[in-house]
C-alpha cells in the first residue's frame, strides 16, 4: 500500500505540462507552500520577522523574536540557555517543527523531540517565517501547531565584500559581539559570520521560594555560520551551508526533599552542528526547477551536577549526555503550470525525502539511569498544487504520504483558499488540514528502572481548520491608515502519547489522550503618520483535555502584545514592546504555589506583563548605535511556576553594515 501511494505521487509529479515562466515577486513566502508566493496570497496565518525587526527591537535570541507572534506562547525556565518550550496554537511543545533554511533541526535525542527555543542566537539570521496551522502535508512529522523557518543572511549580488558586525556591553556583566562578511565574486557568493554573548545573568528561581538563594546563572554562547554558493549559469546553483553553535549555562533543580532549589554545581552544555549541500537547476526556460539536498544535523546536550554540601550524593550527582543526529536526502521540484480559462499562475511542487534519526543518550543518577540507543528511518513523498482564478481567488491543495520504521504510514493533507476583495480592500482566507507527530525514539525505545518504551506506539494526529480576514482601512488621506484582521482556528488532536502503567512497578508510553483546541487571533496595525506605527495582537486560546475537560497546562487564555515603531527624527527609531500573558494551569511544577509554600496544591500560573524598549540612532547610513532595555519594570512574573522572568537589564552598543 505504501509503495502504491508513493508511486501515485511520483506519477502525478512526472505528468507532462506545457508550462510558462512567471515573473519573480520580491516579497514572497516559501515556507507556507514550498512555492514562492506573495504573502497576501498564502492560505495560512503567517508572521515574518525581518532583519530590520531583529535589530530595531533588539532581539538577540530566537525566543525573544517569537514572543510577540500571534498564537505563540513561549514558556522559559529562566534566561538565555534555559529550557524554553513553545506552544503554537495550543498544541503541545513537541508539535512545532523548526527548520534552518528548510532543514529540520528538532533534537531527536529529546524525550518528545520538542525544540528548545532558548538556545539560538540571531547574528547571521536574515528573517524568521512562522506558519501557523497544520503543515505535515509539506514537512511531515511534528508540524501540528505550525512551522518556524530560520533563514540565514543572503549575499548581495552587487558587492564583492560587505562586512557587518556589532559590539555591545551592559548590565549583569553582559558582552555581545559579532563580525562577518558576505558578497559575490564572479560566479561565487559567500557568507561567514560569528557571534558571541556572555552574561552573568539572573537567578532562574522565583525570589518568593524559600529554597532560592538568588544566585545568578550565567550564559556563554557562540555561533558561527558559513555558506559558499556557486552559480555557473543563470538558473543553476550549488550551495553549501554549515552552522555551529555552543552554549554553556547554569541550571537549577530539585533538592533532596524534591523541592525546586538553587543548585550552585549544576551546569549545562548545548551544541548543535547543521550542514547541508544543495544543488538546484531550472529547465525548460525556467518552467521546471529541480534540486537535490543532503543534510546532517547533530545535537549534543550535556548536564553535569556535582554533589552539594550536605546533600545525598546519590540524588544530586548526575552526568547526562544526550546525542541526537538526523541525516537526510531530499529531491524537490517546482513546476509552473499552464493557464486555462480563468485559471492562471499555476504551480506544482513535489518531492521525496528520506531521513534517518538516531540517538545515544544516558541520563539520571546512580541507581536510576535512563538509556536510549535507537534509530528509525522515514520516507515521505509530497505533492501540492496552486492556481489563481479570475485574478482574485487563490486555491491550494496538498498531500503527503510518509512511512516510518516500525509503524507504517501516515497520510496528511491540506487545502486552502484566499479571496481578494479589492472593492473592500480585504482578503478572506480559509484552510484546513491534517498533521501528525512520529513518536520519539525515547518514547519507543527508552529504558530505565520502572520504565520501558513502547515500540508499538502510533503517531499523534490532528485535524484542524481556520478562517480569517484582513482589511486595509483608509483614513486621513492614507489608503492603509490601519489594517485589521482576525483568524478563528479549531483543531482536534488524538492518540496523544502519555505515561501508562503496565503494572504496579512499571510504566510505559501509550496513545491514551485526546485534546480539543479552539481560539482566535485578533490584530490591528495603525499607521497614523509616516513616523509612527503600532501593532496590537490578541490571542485567545481554549485548549482542553477531551476526556477530563481540564485546561491543558501552560496554555494561557489570553496573550496580548503591543509592538511599536516611533521615528521622531530621521535617524532615530524607538521600538517599545509590551507583552501581557494571562494565567494558565501549570503542569510539571504545579506544586510550587504562589504563597511561598512549596507544598501548596496545584494552581494557575498568575498573569504577568513585561516591557521592553530599544532605541537605535543611525550615525551614518552604515553605522548605528543602540540601547536595549529589557523588563524595564523589573517584573518577577513567572512564565513557568517557580521560574522568574530575568530582571531589568540594559545593553549599549554599535553595529555596522558596510
Q: Keywords, please?
A:
five-stranded mixed β-sheet, disordered N terminus, mainly beta, globular, Maltoporin, Chain A, single chain, 658 residues, 22-stranded antiparallel barrel
Question: What features would you describe in this structure?
Answer:
This protein is mainly β and 658 residues long. It has a single domain, classed as Maltoporin, Chain A. The chain is 6% helix and 59% strand. It has a 22-stranded antiparallel β-barrel. A hairpin with a 2-residue loop joins strand 20 and strand 21 (368-389).
Short précis:
The chain is mainly beta and 658 residues long. It has 6 helices and 37 strands.
List the SSEs and their pairings.
Blueprint: H1 2-14, E1 28-29, E2 37-38, E3 45-50, H2 51-56, H3 62-66, E4 72-76, E5 84-88, E6 96-100, E7 103-104, E8 125-132, H4 136-139, E9 146-152, E10 162-170, E11 174-185, E12 188-199, E13 219-233, E14 236-250, E15 253-254, E16 260-261, E17 266-283, E18 288-305, H5 313-316, E19 318-337, E20 343-365, E21 368-389, E22 393-404, E23 408-421, E24 426-437, H6 441-445, E25 447-448, E26 451-452, E27 460-475, E28 478-501, E29 507-529, E30 532-545, E31 558-569, E32 572-581, E33 584-585, E34 604-605, E35 608-620, E36 623-630, E37 649-657
Parallel strand pairs: 6-9
Antiparallel strand pairs: 1-2, 3-8, 4-5, 6-7, 8-9, 10-11, 10-37, 11-12, 12-13, 13-14, 14-17, 15-16, 17-18, 18-19, 19-20, 20-21, 21-22, 22-23, 23-24, 24-27, 25-26, 27-28, 28-29, 29-30, 30-31, 31-32, 32-35, 33-34, 35-36, 36-37
Amino acid at each position: 500500500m505504501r509503495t502504491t501511494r508513493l508511486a501515485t505521487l511520483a506519477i502525478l509529479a512526472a505528468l507532462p505540462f506545457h508550462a510558462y515562466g512567471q515573473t519573480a515577486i520580491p516579497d514572497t513566502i516559501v515556507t507556507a507552500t514550498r512555492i514562492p508566493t506573495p504573502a497576501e496570497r498564502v492560505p495560512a496565518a503567517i508572521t515574518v520577522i525581518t532583519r530590520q525587526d531583529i535589530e530595531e527591537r533588539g532581539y538577540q535570541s530566537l525566543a525573544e523574536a517569537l514572543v510577540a507572534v500571534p498564537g505563540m506562547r513561549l514558556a522559559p525556565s529562566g534566561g538565555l540557555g534555559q529550557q524554553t518550550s513553545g506552544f503554537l496554537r495550543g498544541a503541545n511543545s513537541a508539535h512545532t517543527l523548526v527548520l534552518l533554511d528548510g532543514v529540520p533541526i528538532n533534537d531527536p535525542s529529546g524525550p518528545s523531540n520538542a525544540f528548545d527555543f532558548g538556545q539560538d542566537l540571531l547574528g547571521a539570521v536574515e528573517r524568521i517565517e512562522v506558519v501557523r496551522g497544520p503543515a505535515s502535508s509539506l514537512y511531515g512529522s511534528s508540524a501540528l501547531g505550525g512551522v518556524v523557518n530560520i533563514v540565514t543572511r543572503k549575499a548581495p549580488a552587487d558587492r564583492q565584500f560587505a562586512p557587518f558586525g556589532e559590539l555591545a556591553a551592559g548590565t549583569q556583566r553582559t558582552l555581545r559581539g559579532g563580525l562577518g562578511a558576505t558578497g559575490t565574486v564572479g560566479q561565487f557568493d559567500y557568507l561567514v559570520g560569528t557571534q558571541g554573548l556572555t552574561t552573568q545573568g539572573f537567578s532562574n528561581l522565583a525570589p518568593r521560594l524559600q529554597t532560592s538563594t538568588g544566585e545568578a546563572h550565567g550564559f556563554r554562547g557562540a555561533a558561527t555560520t558559513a555558506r559558499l554558493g556557486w552559480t555557473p549559469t543563470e538558473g543553476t546553483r550549488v550551495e553549501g551551508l554549515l552552522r555551529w553553535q555552543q552554549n554553556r549555562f547554569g541550571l537549577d533543580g530539585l533538592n533532596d526533599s524534591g523541592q525546586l532549589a538553587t543548585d550552585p554545581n549544576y551546569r549545562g552544555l548545548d551544541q548543535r552542528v547543521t550542514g547541508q549541500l544543495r544543488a538546484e537547476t531550472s529547465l525548460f526556460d525556467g518552467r521546471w526547477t529541480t534540486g537535490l539536498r543532503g543534510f546532517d544535523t547533530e545535537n549534543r546536550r550535556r548536564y553535569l551536577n556535582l554533589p552539594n554540601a550536605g546533600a545525598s550524593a546519590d540524588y544530586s550527582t548526575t552526568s547526562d549526555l544526550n546525542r541526537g543526529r538526523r541525516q537526510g536526502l531530499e529531491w524537490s521540484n517546482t513546476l509552473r503550470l499552464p493557464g486555462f480559462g480563468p485559471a492562471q499562475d499555476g504551480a506544482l511542487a513535489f518531492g521525496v525525502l528520506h531521513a534517518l534519526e538516531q540517538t545515544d543518550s544516558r541520563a539520571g543518577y546512580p541507581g536510576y539511569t535512563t538509556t536510549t540507543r535507537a534509530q528509525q528511518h522515514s520516507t515521505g513523498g509530497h505533492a501540492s498544487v496552486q492556481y489563481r482564478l479570475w485574478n482574485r481567488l487563490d486555491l491550494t491543495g496538498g498531500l503527503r504520504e510518509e512511512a516510518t520504521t516500525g509503524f507504517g504510514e501516515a497520510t496528511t493533507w491540506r487545502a486552502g483558499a484566499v479571496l481578494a476583495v479589492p472593492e473592500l480592500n480585504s482578503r478572506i482566507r480559509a484552510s484546513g488540514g491534517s498533521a501528525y507527530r512520529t513518536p520519539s525514539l525515547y518514547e519507543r525505545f527508552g529504558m530505565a528502572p520502572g520504565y520501558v518504551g513502547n515500540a508499538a506506539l502510533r503517531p499523534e494526529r490532528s485535524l484542524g481548520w481556520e478562517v480569517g480576514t484582513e482589511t486595509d482601512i483608509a483614513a486621513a488621506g492614507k489608503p492603509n491608515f490601519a489594517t485589521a484582521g482576525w483568524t478563528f482556528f479549531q483543531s482536534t488532536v488524538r492518540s496523544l502519547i502519555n505515561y501508562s502503567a503496565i503494572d504496579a512497578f512499571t510504566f510505559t508510553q501509550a496513545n491514551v489522550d485526546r485534546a480539543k483546541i479552539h481560539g482566535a487571533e485578533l490584530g490591528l496595525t495603525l499607521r497614523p503618520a509616516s513616523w509612527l506605527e503600532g501593532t496590537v495582537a490578541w490571542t485567545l486560546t481554549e485548549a482542553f483535555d477531551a476526556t477530563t475537560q481540564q485546561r491543558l497546562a501552560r496554555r494561557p487564555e489570553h496573550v496580548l502584545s503591543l509592538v511599536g515603531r516611533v521615528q521622531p527624527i530621521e535617524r532615530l527609531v524607538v521600538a517599545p514592546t509590551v507583552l501581557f500573558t494571562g494565567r494558565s494551569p501549570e503542569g510539571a511544577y504545579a506544586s510550587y504555589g504562589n504563597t511561598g509554600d512549596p507544598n501548596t496544591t496545584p494552581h494557575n500560573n498568575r498573569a504577568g506583563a513585561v516591557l521592553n524598549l530599544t532605541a537605535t540612532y543611525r550615525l551614518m547610513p552604515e553605522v548605528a548605535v543602540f540601547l536595549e532595555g529589557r523588563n524595564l519594570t523589573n517584573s518577577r512574573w513567572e512564565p513557568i511556576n517557580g521560574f522568574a522572568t530575568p530582571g531589568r537589564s540594559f545593553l549599549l552598543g554599535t553595529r555596522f553594515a558596510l
